[in-house]
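pinned: reference chain
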Amino acid sequence: MKRKILVVEDSFVFAEELRLTLEMDGYEVTDVIVAYEELEISLKTNTPEFVLLDINLEGEKSGIDIANDLLNVWKIPFMFITAQTDTSTFQQAIKYYPTHYLTKPCNSEDVIMSIELAFHNLSLLQKEEIKKVTKVFTEYSKGVKQDVVVEIDDIIWFESRQNFVAFYMNDDDSHFLERSTIKQTIEEFGESFIQIHRNYGINLRKVSSCSPSEVCLTNGKRLPISRRQKQNLVNHLNQSDLEEDKE
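pinned: its structure tokens
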């Protein structure tokens, strides 16, 4: 079954590029609209599962207004694709919980990988496969042993350091170290944790944007995707879609 996506974009050229990209990748484009006033009719006519949303639109209302409605009225997930790169607009936009915030120009690979990642994460949430599971790390401060309990889903990324793995939450300067390997970590933590490089692994739910060469995480950290692990990432996202199609 094809996934349904609505495109909200006032540039005819870019909207058609998005339509072609989506259809070539197997998605159904439910509609292309250019203004807030067209939203309700479009959603009622052919309800999408996801929305690609520009910020500057025709008319008085913007994509931010649509984001508010998608979040609070229609309960439809969305991502921004916009030329707006200023901090003020970004901070306003993320109040409505977009799955991603892509800035133009962006290529088709960026768009498709972001969509696949969004559907993957939404699938995990819907199936309730992400639970509040804890992990106990041991720290030593001035020779005193101390156990620290953290939520596994709070771990953003992890790094191989010879016979150890370093686990990072929000602050790159603060981390926990444990004797382990990336493979063992993934087996322990579950399917939302994957390897993207020989030395790095990530929590897929902590990815804010994704390109063919790197991922940007929710704490601003950027990590490279190796050529070998890039296919692993794509396969992992595609597998989530295949499992949903079987249901």
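why pinned: The longest helix spans residues 227-246. The first strand starts at residue 4 and ends at 8.
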